[in-house]
Each structure stands twice: as structure tokens, then as C-alpha cells.
Amino acid sequence: xxxxxxxxxxxxxxxxxxxxxxxxxxxxxxxxxxxxxxxxxxxxxxxxxxxxxxxxxxxxxxxxxxxxxxxxxxxxxxxxxxxxxxxxxxxxxxxxxxxxxxxxxxxxxxxxxxxxxxxxxxxxxxxxxxxxxxxxxxxxxxxxxxxxxxxxxxxxxxxxxxxxxxxxxxxxxxxxxxxxxxxxxxxxxxxxxxxxxxxxxxxxxxxxxxxxxxxxxxxxxxxxxxxxxxxxxxxxxxxxxxxxxxxxxxxxxxxxxxxxxxxxxxxxxxxxxxxxxxxxxxxxxxxxxxxxxxxxxxxxxxxxxxxxxxxxxxxxxxxxxxxxxxxxxxxxxxxxxxxxxxxxxxxxxxxxxxxxxxxxxxxxxxxxxxxxxxxxxxxxxxxxxxxxxxxxxxxxxxxxxxxxxxxxxxxxxxxxxxxxxxxxxxxxxxxxxxxxxxxxxxxxxxxxxxxxxxxxxxxxxxxxxxxxxxxxxxxxxxxxxxxxxxxxxxxxxxxxxxxxxxxxxxxxxxxxxxxxxxxxxxxxxxxxxxxxxxxxxxxxxxxxxxxxxxxxxxxxxxxxxxxxxxxxxxxxxxxxxxxxxxxxxxxxxxxxxxxxxxxxxxxxxxxxxxxxxxxxxxxxxxxxxxxxxxxxxxxxxxxxxxxxxxxxxxxxxxxxxxxxxxxxxxxxxxxxxxxxxxxxxxxxxxxxxxxxxxxxxxxxxxxxxxxxxxxxxxxxxxxxxxxxxxxxxxxxxxxxxxxxxxxxxxxxxxxxxxxxxxxxxxxxxxxxxxxxxxxxxxxxxxxxxxxxxxxxxxxxxxxxxxxxxxxxxxxxxxxxxxxxxxxxxxxxxxxxxxxxxxxxxxxxxxxxxxxxxxxxxxxxxxxxxxxxxxxxxxxxxxxxxxxxxxxxxxxxxxxxxxxxxxxxxxxxxxxxxxxxxxxxxxxxxxxxxxxxxxxxxxxxxxxxxxxxxxxxxxxxxxxxxxxxxxxxxxxxx
Length: 973
Fold this sequence. Notes:
It is built from 45 helices and 16 strands. It is an alpha/beta fold. The chain is elongated, with a radius of gyration of 39 Å.
């Protein structure tokens, strides 16, 4: 590409079908080994109006290019698809541009001038003419101009070193040609004058100066700079210091003194020092500052000439860049240029206007400033060639505003601030800036308000910073309010801003306003993105997966709108979760702005959007539950709507259903609250009840209770009998797990009454059966049998075979506890047949675990253990820890009955550990009591005392809460 575009693979020339494929390949090669955004490819391929099918045509062009490359033997991985774009993968020896950059890097590493010159010559040998000749694209023309400038700078550096090495005769021809290409370049003219003088051609050297003087005066209206004027005078008087040094024919360890050393290095007539004042109370940002410093370090191998600081409104981009630029200013002795592009204002400043401002700063004025954009850009790049300048471009709105302002010189660097990703800038590195850390936020607040005031009311200070969301702009406004009102306590401000509806109005002082800052970003967005942001604000302060945007906006291309908001730094990509989903979040103050905007939307539109999102959550929760081991409380369906996502999305999310529930724990509870807030009681109770099998599986009792409580309040307030009965039943089971049997009885009896009122037979059977569990655990066996019989009759009458199998096993357990072994065996056999006929592996394992007690009672421990090991294998395969714990407890009991302490104790200790983690104090106590009994039987009395004491303390805790006896039987399901 360093010349006419040409590609070949193993000697075979790659055919490019038309200009679009050529542009596509050129754009990928310019940014080889980096992702090239689709937007940039669209801009490359269409200089004018972009067609509606642009993205599809880009994809078609890429497919054709891949086919042509593959036909010549290219691997399929040569061009890969990345999020938002494409990337071509090449080694340095596979692309002339990469080889050129590599040789230049090696030249910088050499210390000996001879070796540096040799490496630079190798770099120049990579060129076959001007870059990308024959490719017609305004975007690529800018890239080509940048590359050509880099080639010219390399050429000048090489000739300068060779002149210092005494090769003045050899460099004259190249310097003469180079000066014709760059007639304003005083460095080239100076080197040519010295080379001619050393060849005893003093008159020609003086003619070079005179032609340069006339060109600068006639075309730019300026005189030559003082250094070359001084060289001119030295040639006139035949200064002996200009005499040639001995020619160097081989390597040399030291660079000879330049014949022009008596003159100072060329400098600007008026050095440019335009950086704004540094922020006196700048705090933190150590990581971001270190990244900028590395990118600006000329000696660093990963140096990048262009760094873009991207962040949302008020996050402190300009402060950071100003501070970083001032820290790095010593590395750019030729000056620092600052241009405010006003990209977020009503009137963004175009590149032509900015170039004129830059040229004036570089001492070019009046008619000397060319009229055309490209001519101004060329002069700008020429003036910065061979200089070490830092250019700061503040508040860039888009890449087209920036591209013409990029210097081509290697010694220059550019720092850009923008609220949007500038993916079309070749070779640019993006640094994503977030809000301050809590410690940095407090340091900033304390530094402005004063340490004494903060130390007097530390809790109020924390609350204010929490309301500000650690956003620097908000903190500065809040701090300024307090500074201007010394009589205010921090509590006064906290009370004024803690109300979200008033917060934005309070966070304003003078020209500073959080709301105004956000509105600047909104003005740059299309209408559909603004609407999406407003609806997103209604979903609350949660990190959300990307699929939410589909149902929220009710459109299949919602991810494109999401990308727009992310690129605008209004929605933040916070992380990728454990199942590979990108997670997105709104800053709290941006969310508050979004809610204000949403107030203008029709109420029906907002409600419909909320229902779509919640119905998608409900559908996913149901699908996830279907893939979990069966639980006691199967998620029961009501009449709430369900919205299915595309099958590919569902399959990806549900590949690991437990993992999906794990990452969505908070958002599922948030969905329940959102449904309650919008008066959607049916969705609220279904969303609360839907994850119960997962909560049961993970023993997440707090999540279980929290969701059920808030949904129950809404269901009861709305008179939703079915929803209230389901939620009370769920709370009843939760009370049983916590050994809170009085609470369980109240909840379950209320559930039974509601089921009877609403005609919910299956629900009635479940609640009655759970009351039977309470009776069994509390030792009221006859009452427990009556309740199980009542529930079983309902299940059989309703034809619910799953519930019948469950209750048959419960009846078998009761008959066993009553000593009716033959009847118990009959019930166990029936339950096992039913579970196997239903292909319910989890239920089979539960029955086998219960069946083991009958075998042990009949004196067949081997058969009991066979059942238990089979059951344990199933529970461990299904990752059902609680059922595994009950099984290990039974294993320990069987071994204890055989007086096998060595096998019983490990099983019981594992079970106790699991019960402890799950909050099951009663069964944990049973484990430690049995371990203590085994210790006592073995004569290890100190351990026996320790373990029995542990059991006693647990039972006392249960007795204090429930007034139950310490000898209560286990509550295993």
C-alpha cells in the first residue's frame, strides 16, 4: 500500500473486483491488526450521501474480498469479524506499512548514527511511490497524506544523519528533490545549503536561501526563521565551523557534531503555549494519567500518536487532558496547541475554521492562509513536520471534525476529548473515563468544602457524594454551593438533593449544571436514541444485559440504538458477566435526566415498554426453572403475559440456567419491584414466584423472602387471590426451612383459605401437604397423615401425577414413622414407580433416600446404602446441595447404626457443613449430636463434649424461636 495498492499471496496476485473491494482492503490495511469500525468502512466507500443499504453493501464487499483472498490461498482467519467491525491479521513482513513502522522502530533503538541511517534506509526501501495511489476516497486520502508525511519525515531524518556522517555529496540530489516537494520546509533547505557549501558550491547554497526567502514572502507573507537566517550569514562569511568532517564509511559509535551546531535548533518564531490553566484541585485518575503518559512517551514501543479520552457528560475529560498535557509539556518543546472544537454545542466548529485558528497560532496570517480545507491541512502538516508539538483537541463531536487536524509528524502527539467513540481515527487509542472512585470523590469534595466541615458531618458528606454518583461535575457544583453558603450545614444540602425529583434542579450553580451538560449530549443523538434512553431510565438503577433493549424498544435492531448510546457515553458498558453477557448501566444522574425526558412520553407507551421487558424476564425465568432439578414448589403460571426472545438468544442464555439465575439475581428482584411500582400485580407475583426453584436450589432465603414480601403486598392490595395464595405458600415453605413453624402454619393456613375461595385445587393440595410437613416435624403424626391424605385425594382427583408421586412418598415416610413398615414399603414402591414413569430423576432420588430408612429399619444396611449412594450421585450431578446434605445425613445414620465411626463422621461433617451454609440449624444440630454420640462410644470424651455442646447450642436457638423440643426429627423434604 506504500505506492499503488497491490496484494499477492505466495506469488499469486489477488484480484480485486472493483473499487469497493480495493477501498475495503485499503481501509483494513491502514489499520492492520486493529478493529476497523463498520462506520469507518461506510465513510471510506461513500464520500457523499450514504445509501440506506450501506452496511449490507459493506458486508457484501467484505465477503467478496474474503473469497478472492481465499482463492489465492489466504487462511480463513485473515480477516475476522469483531464487535462493530472487522480486523485483518498480518505479521510485519506481510505488509509494507508494518515493515516500514518496524524498521523505524529499530532505527529509534539504535544508538550509533550509522546503524540508525541503515535502518532508516531499509524503512524507505518499503516505498514504491506515494501511498494508496489510485484509491479514490476522501477518508483514505487523509490517511495517505498522513503516511506520505511520515515518509517525508523519515527521509529528512535519514538525510540529516547522513549529512552529519559526512556524506554531503551523496545527499545533495535527494535533498534537492525533497525541497521541490516541500518548498516551505526550512529544515530541508538548511541541510541542502550545508551540503552544497561543503561541496565548495557556496553560490548555489546562497541561491537555495534566496529562493526560499522569495517563496515564503510571496506565498505566505513571512520571512525565514532566525536559525536559517543565521546559517545564511555564516555561509556569506565562510564560517570555518561549517567545514566538512571526515566522511564516515562504516559504523561509528558517536554521532559527529553537526556542522550547524553553532546555530540553534530551528524554533517557532513565537512558541505556542496554549494549554488552559491546570485545575488546582485535580485529584486521582492515576491509572488514566499513566495510560496517557505511556501513549505520549516517544521511547515506548506501544506509543500511539493519537489518544482519545472518552466519557460521559461531567466526568472530567477536559480536566484530565489539561492536567496530563501539562505534565507532558516538557516532552514537546516546540509547543502545545489547544483547539476547542465545541462538538457538543449548537454550532460545532468545522475543521477548516480550526485549521485557520491553528495556522494563525503558528504565525501564518491574513492572505497567507489558503482558502481550501485540503490546502490548509497540507500547510498545517508541513509546519508541524520535524517539530515536537502536542495538539489538544477538546470536545470533538465526530471523526470528520478531527481527521484534518491530525499532524503527520512523528514528533507530534494529539490528545482528544470526546463524548463519543471516534472509531474512524486510524491508529487512535481510546481511554474510557468513568466517575471518580469513592476515595477520590471524597478527596475532591473535602478539598473544596474544607476538612473541618466534612469531619463534623461525615455521614452527610457520604450521602451527598452518593447523590452525586461520584460524578466530578456534580461534586464541584455541590461543593461550590456549600462554599458560597458557609452558614449551611452539610445536612441542608443533603436534604435538598436526596429527592431525585429535585436533584437536577439543585445541582446547578451559575453556568454549571448537570442537566445542561447531559442535554448537550442528547442534542447530538437521533430521536430514537433519545426515546430509548428515556425508556431505559424507567427500568431503575440496575446493570442490564443487552437483550433488554429488544423488548424495551419493541424492535429487532435495538442493539444498534444501544451502540449509539454507548458510543455517546450515555450508557456505560460496565463489564461482561459470568455467562458472557455484556452488562450496561446508566449513571444515576443521567438516569434522572432520562426519567424527566420520559415524562413527556404517553403513559400508555411507557407502560407497554415496561410490560414487554417484564414479560421477557418472566419467560426467561420460566425457561430457566424448567432446566433446573425439580423442586417442591414448581413455578406456577398465572395470566401474566410472556414474551419470548429469539431462540438463539434463549439457547445462549439458558446453556447454564443456574449461572443465568446467579448473574440475574438482583435484576430479577428489581423486576418484581418494577412491576409493583407500575401496578402490575399479576406480573409481580409471577416474577416473585418464578425463581423459587432456583432460590430453593441455592438456599437464597433472603432473596426468596424479599421478592415474596413486596409482591404479596401488591397482590393483597389488588385483591389478587391466586397470587396471594401462591406467595403465602412460598413463604410457608421458607418458614419451614428456617424452623419457624408458627409462621409457616399461619402462612399456609391463609394460603389454603385463599385457594378454596379461588377454586385452586392444586394450590390447596400443596399448601395442605406443607401443613402436613409442619405436623410431622413437630411430632403430630396422626394429624400429618390426615393432611397428606387430604392433599393426596385432591391431587388424584385433579390428575396431577407429579404431585401424586410427591405425596405418595410423603405418606410412605409417615407410615414408616408410625412403625407400619409393610404399608410404608407399599407406598414407597408406588412412589418410585410413579417417579420413574414420569422420568423425574430428582424425584426418584428423593424416594430412594427416604426408602433407605425402611431398609435400615429392617436390618438391611447394605441395601439402604445402595439407595443412598444412588440418590447422592443424582443430587451431586444436579448440583442440589441441600438434598445432598440430607442424603449424607442418612449415610451417617446408617454407618452409625453399624458403629462405623470412621465412615459415619466424615459423611456427617460434610452434611453439617452444608446445613450450616444453608441456614438449616435443626439438621445441622442432628449431625453434631450424632457425631458426639459416636465420639462418646469410641471413648473420645473431649470431642464428644465439644460436638454435643455445639448441637445443644443450635437446639437452644431453635427452642428460643419456636418453643420446640431439642429432639425434633429432621425437616428434610
